[in-house]
Amino acid sequence: MSKIEKAPQWQRNLYALWLGNFITGAGASMSLPFLPLFISEMGNFPKWELTLYAGLAFSGTFLSQAIVSPFWGKLADRTGRKPMLMRAALGMTITATLTGFSPNVWVLIALRMIQGGFSGYINNAYALMASEVPADKSGRTMGTLTTGNVGGTLIGPIIGGYMAGIFGYRIPFFMFGGMMLIASITTLVFVKENFHPADDPKYAERSAFTGIKHVRVVWAMIISSMLIQAATTSINPIISLFVKELMHNHGNIAMVSGVIAALPGIATLIAAPQLGALGDHIGPRKVLVAGLIFCAMMFLPMFFVQSVTSLGVFRFLVGISDAALLPITQTVMTLATPKESISRIFSYNQSAQAIGSVIGPMLAAGVAGVLDYRYVFLMTTGLVLINLGIVMWAYKADYKTVKETR
């Protein structure tokens, strides 16, 4: 028997879900660097209108995701997480492919909103693993699972930017659809879930926070996920436009934008498992607080950058802080939440992340349209500092009752 065949089922699920997360991250990020450029080809828009449409195209997906995620989470706690994984994978297969045929900006925005309603693969992958992984391995496992998503996010913009620069902006959407079909087949064949509904049939009707001892900390993690996502996605609507400005409209802007968008993924890919294991050892709070402080210190200098190279350096360093943020919040929720309601808590967390992915790009679009692209980084620094304050307050308020699991 091979090493994989000898591994316990939760580890085999981890391998399959890592691949699914990688494909989802890669496919979803393929269009990010050049989406504003794609929109600019659909009409002769002034700067403020272009940034507005780019913000809507980015945030529309996450707006619908935020609305429907609690419903999917409640259904997952009743039926299991694997059916939700299949629903998300097949839904994105269809909607991503159709997006490649968009005739105008409004059809593009509408299809991205529909895609958001059927998305949620990564969130359900986290929920399935959280319900199965041993507590003493949760930090490393969540960190490893995160590397699948960020690894795909790393590769996706580079491939998408390269393909878009050669074949046009529609091809990456078709590639996304084909990749999600592969993820659907992989999940169907290799993911096995030992799902048992709650003994009490009325459990799903109770609050998802029933049985959670440290509700204040869990809520802080959900809010933190929202603010982290708002900060990290705020640059998405303007990244290609800002790169275009820094390059003085010369060179392969789509390709360079893809590289700049992917750089944080390199650092996160390297650091996430190590920081997850460190959280298992010293407690997640210390890693989370340090990550937020470092994140603010890296976003602020981006306001002053004068070249693509310096922007890339700070984007890379932000990726290190990313490795200490979302995986750690996932770990805290995993340790604090009963298995019977883990899908609902993670769905609320996904809704919060989706709301952050709406707030961040829309705020950035507004700031960039009224002021300048650079002021987006000042706004982002402020969001990170607010996040730090909320986390510190939650742990301090719960200090006497919260005991971090090693």
From TrEMBL:
<dbReference type="InterPro" id="IPR011701">
    <property type="entry name" value="MFS"/>
</dbReference>
<keyword id="KW-0472">Membrane</keyword>
<dbReference type="InterPro" id="IPR036259">
    <property type="entry name" value="MFS_trans_sf"/>
</dbReference>
<dbReference type="Pfam" id="PF07690">
    <property type="entry name" value="MFS_1"/>
</dbReference>
<dbReference type="GO" id="GO:0022857">
    <property type="term" value="F:transmembrane transporter activity"/>
</dbReference>
<feature type="transmembrane region" description="Helical">
    <location>
        <begin position="51"/>
        <end position="72"/>
    </location>
</feature>
<feature type="transmembrane region" description="Helical">
    <location>
        <begin position="287"/>
        <end position="304"/>
    </location>
</feature>
<feature type="transmembrane region" description="Helical">
    <location>
        <begin position="251"/>
        <end position="275"/>
    </location>
</feature>
<protein>
    <submittedName>
        <fullName>Major facilitator superfamily transporter</fullName>
    </submittedName>
</protein>
<keyword id="KW-1133">Transmembrane helix</keyword>
<feature type="transmembrane region" description="Helical">
    <location>
        <begin position="316"/>
        <end position="336"/>
    </location>
</feature>
<dbReference type="GO" id="GO:0005886">
    <property type="term" value="C:plasma membrane"/>
</dbReference>
<keyword id="KW-1003">Cell membrane</keyword>
<keyword id="KW-0813">Transport</keyword>
<feature type="transmembrane region" description="Helical">
    <location>
        <begin position="375"/>
        <end position="395"/>
    </location>
</feature>
<keyword id="KW-0812">Transmembrane</keyword>
<dbReference type="InterPro" id="IPR001958">
    <property type="entry name" value="Tet-R_TetA/multi-R_MdtG-like"/>
</dbReference>
<feature type="transmembrane region" description="Helical">
    <location>
        <begin position="15"/>
        <end position="39"/>
    </location>
</feature>
<feature type="transmembrane region" description="Helical">
    <location>
        <begin position="217"/>
        <end position="239"/>
    </location>
</feature>
<feature type="transmembrane region" description="Helical">
    <location>
        <begin position="171"/>
        <end position="191"/>
    </location>
</feature>
<dbReference type="InterPro" id="IPR020846">
    <property type="entry name" value="MFS_dom"/>
</dbReference>
<feature type="transmembrane region" description="Helical">
    <location>
        <begin position="84"/>
        <end position="109"/>
    </location>
</feature>
<feature type="domain" description="Major facilitator superfamily (MFS) profile">
    <location>
        <begin position="13"/>
        <end position="399"/>
    </location>
</feature>
